[in-house]
Design goal:
Helix content is about 70%, strand content about 0%. It is mainly alpha-helical.
């Protein structure tokens, strides 16, 4: 339900959204929801979004790439969790694949190995099977592919 707060004209909303998008990359869904919250009808929302795209304040590919870089390099998420987050933001599968170009294979493996080694230091389990289960579960929950996690676990000597 749209808020009943202050009503903005199309030009006021556009100005506010220019600042909103300039501050940080946004996806179409976030801008659309902001306009919906402000009480704009679908036609007006679409008109403002098209104008933001034309003036390059809103770019879904740029958003997907920035999201992918940030979640991987800062939060150390795997590709599965990043893809899930982008899908929730309404980003297409094609753009998700393009966004993954931001992560090199070497960097991805190095990050996974670092996560596995770091987690292994905090796991106190003495049974090797249970220990590896806890470590692998942690990496998988961070969005790394299970087959890759198990392969890397075999290579790392704790």
């Amino acid at each position: 339900m749209p808020s009943q707060g202050k009503k903005y004209s199309n030009s006021e909303a556009f100005q506010k959204l220019m600042k909103y998008c300039a501050y940080q990359e946004r996806c179409h869904q976030e801008v659309n929801m902001k306009l919906y919250d402000w009480g704009f009808y679908k036609d007006d929302r679409n008109e403002i979004i098209v104008r933001l795209i034309q003036e390059n304040f809103l770019n879904e590919e740029r958003f997907a790439r920035a999201y992918c870089r940030g979640r991987f390099r800062q939060k150390h998420w795997g590709k599965l969790k990043i893809a899930q987050g982008l899908k929730q933001k309404g980003v297409s599968s094609k753009l998700i694949e393009i966004a993954f170009e931001e992560i090199s294979d070497d960097e991805y493996l190095n990050t996974l190995q670092t996560i596995l080694i770091k987690k292994s230091k905090s796991v106190k389990e003495t049974n090797e099977f249970k220990r590896n289960s806890k470590i692998s579960y942690y990496a998988i929950s961070r969005g790394f592919e299970s087959a890759l996690v198990f392969d890397q676990l075999k290579l790392i000597k704790f």
